[in-house]
Write a structure and sequence with these properties.
heterodimer; A: about 70 residues; 2 strands; B: about 200 residues; Rossmann fold; 10 helices; 5 strands
Chain lengths: ~70, ~200
Amino acid sequence: MSGALAERVFAEKLERAGFVDVWLGGHRPYGIDDAAKYPLFTPELIEIMQRTISPDRQDHVATGVIVKAHRPA
Amino acid sequence: MEREPATRDLMFQDEIRDNVRQAYASIETGGGETVARRLYSEQELAEVPPGAVDWALGVGNPVRYALLQPGETVLDIGSGGGIDTILAAHRVGPNGKAIGLDVVEQMLERARGHATEAAVDSWTEFLEGEMENIPLPDRSVDVVISNGVLNLSARKSRALAEIFRVLGPGGRISLADLTVEGELPPEVANDQSAWAG
């Protein structure tokens, strides 16, 4: 999650790489409770997230998105 | 003597890469059904062996959006336990090819076993390699998919350039990934496991 980009930055990087028709959709919120279902998030990290992320953001810390694009024909 | 900033950045990139690799090599299970049922339909889950479901670690369903066609060659970057590679293999069929790429040998072995169980192994291949240095020729695939993987790279522009290189003209990507708007608290952002998760 620490390496996740903002959507705008993601799209810009794709365009800089040469991709066209960049589309981001299929948004799915990821909160701390969702992160806790993944073994890659340690209990210590989940505790830090619960302590340091504001309550109004804890159910949407990150967003799962689908990114589509084409290499020009 | 203090190192130059560029050297420090390269060391930081190596540290992130090693931490991510170690984290994925050390886990004993994936997200299991709890994660899989959030992302895949009953019908999709019925197409893959239970072991591949157990090792689901993604954040979306890139195969559903990829609109794969029979005969296409698809590359799954960060294939993990193989759930998306196997779903892709079913869609491209025996006249196509599904290639999984991962840096973790244990994951590759699991995925090969799951592909055999799913009876797609004759047109499915799993390769060891990094997304920043894909071991495939230029313009050799039609579609690239990945699921929760690009955010793990400390060299995202390099990874995207590699994806572009291996795609043929008109080729397409369908990537599921996490995005974050704004800053994470420094205690979270600097935690090593937050880079892998």
